[in-house]
Amino acid sequence: MKRRVPFLCLAGLLIAMAALTLGPMWDETATVDETTFMGGGFEYLKVGSAKMAEENPLLGCVVMAAPMLAFDVHVSDQAQALMEGKAFSPVAWPWLGPPRRFQELFPTGANWYHYGLSEAQYFGQIVVYDPQNDAERLLFWSRMTQLMLTLATAGFLFYWTRQLTGNDWAGVMAAGLWGLSPVTLGYGHLAIAEPGVTLMYPIVLWWLAKTFSTSTCRNWFVLGVLCAVAMAMKHLAIMFGPIIVVTVALCWMRDRSWPGMVVLIKRAISLVAGFWAAILVIFFPHWSAPPAIDPVQAKALNVPEWFIALRPLLIPGDFFKAVTLKVLHSQAGHNAYLLGKWSETGWWYYFPAVIFFKTPIPLLALMVIGAVLVVRKARQLAFASLVPWIAAAVYVLAALPNKVSIGVRHMYPIYPLLVVGIADQLFRAGRKWQIVGWIGSGLIALIAGFTYPDFISYCNAFAGGTQNGYRVMIDSNYDWGQDGKRLKQWMEQNSIPHIYLDYFGTQASIEWHKIPNTRVTADQARQVLAGWLVVSVSELMRPEWSWLRESRKPDARIAHTLFAYRLP
């Protein structure tokens, strides 16, 4: 019976995770990116085209959209035209740079090099929130696929940590530290790509450590396959490149067992062959290379020269196009906010900052304790115990130059690695440190309970708490358009027939929920003489809203993200 207790605790933990997320899964409106992912996967499942998922991971989108096939999803004429490539947005995005007029970039019509970002975003919205569809059910079941991946991640962390330490309770601690964190509960239930790739990170690194101990070409081939699956879940898996290189180099330096050149080449070929073979399977039957393109149009679209030069080798073309677009996006930047400042190119310290402000303080403390313990005993530890720490450090360092500073969710995959490392070190350090770990786990569970159901908006005390976290960071860190349904409930409870609205989210969801509103900009809101004005805090913190933000306090606040002002 004693041997079963840890497994019963793990089962209880998984039930608690599900219980804490089922409410938000149903109550939260679609966040900014969810309908785009769902639409991209739906189009591929219906017509076999990856056009609506070209910047997003194909496999991740397909997983999210799969439950939609169980419903009689109505596809409007406009949505059908977008799927068939007969309708396009008035503006088109080059591969790098601001949007331009569609006719300017494609005077004779769209071709393979068209970057359909605008169409993909619009398509997802009008399919999910079609008036004839049950958008809430579609969204709930798409989110359910990601919750299953999140629960699977907790289960795998239990297994990996148990294998490292030989102790079932260490596995329970790792699963609990991760599964009850508001960061996990906030993003692990959404129809976004992070839950899938976050499951793959510990799996890939567990196999990498296994490959070090049994370094066969077969194991390196399987490692390549796992990396490909991770890339197809989210392109953040590109970080496996530097992680594998650094980890392999440190392993060889530590053990002083440098392989011969022939062995090294065989392993590299096996890794690449496994990766490419899996990508071909995922993108089957679309194995064609990118088509030729006129040099003038290539320049207008800012298609990289290396892409044109290597074009015949880039098979499947859809995969290499998607990865290239994502890399170019990270180089170009994104309008972002941090600590009262705005930037188009981000800050090198953005991700360490959001980790510091979004992570529960007990978990931050355990990270520091675990890091100190592992550094002190690094020479005596088996290399498998160092792998999660090395991988997390390389991941963060490699992300620093990224100019897209929009969310802690991009750091989501490091949390499973860190909790495995923490539990491993605490259980190696003795009973005193194990008690510290259990106290930290209990505090994190309490924080989750007090945070419910506003996990997305959670910020720790260093950020002023969840109530004031918007002063430090916004967007997907805080206000991602999740409170549309709560806005409607507030209006009904207070008998408010109409609002003026600036909403950071999917406007289609506002219309689908039949929320009487007039959309206004900051300048238009100045002209409103009477009525209720509601502004999403991700919009309110923009410079153009300073006249309102600095002149008065809101008369009401819906959840944490919507500020309501009664005018005059």
List the SSEs and their pairings.
Blueprint: H1 5-27, H2 34-47, H3 58-65, H4 77-83, E1 91-92, E2 100-101, H5 102-105, H6 117-128, H7 135-165, H8 168-179, H9 182-187, H10 194-213, H11 217-233, H12 240-255, H13 261-282, H14 295-301, H15 305-309, H16 317-332, E3 336-338, E4 341-343, H17 350-358, H18 361-376, H19 383-399, H20 414-429, H21 431-451, H22 465-468, H23 484-493, E5 499-502, H24 507-512, E6 517-519, H25 522-525, E7 531-536, H26 537-540, H27 546-549, E8 556-558, E9 562-567
Parallel strand pairs: 5-6, 5-7
Antiparallel strand pairs: 1-2, 3-4, 7-9, 8-9
Q: Which spans have pLDDT < 50 for at least 5 consecutive residues? A: none
Number of strands: 9
Percent strand: 5-15%
Q: Could you say which overall geometry the principal axes of the C-alpha atoms support?
A: globular
Question: Number of DSSP helices?
Answer: 27
Mind describing the biggest β-sheet?
A: 5 strands, mixed
User: Mean pLDDT, as a whole number?
Assistant: 93
Helix/strand-derived category reads mainly alpha
How would you characterize this protein structure?
This protein has helices at 5-27, 34-47, 58-65, 77-83, 102-105, 117-128, 135-165, 168-179, 182-187, 194-213, 217-233, 240-255, 261-282, 295-301, 305-309, 317-332, 350-358, 361-376, 383-399, 414-429, 431-451, 465-468, 484-493, 507-512, 522-525, 537-540, 546-549; strands at 91-92, 100-101, 336-338, 341-343, 499-502, 517-519, 531-536, 556-558, 562-567. The chain is mostly helical and 568 residues long. It has a domain at 483-567. The protein has a five-stranded mixed β-sheet with strand order 6-5-7-9-8. Helix 7 (135-165) packs antiparallel against helix 8 (168-179).
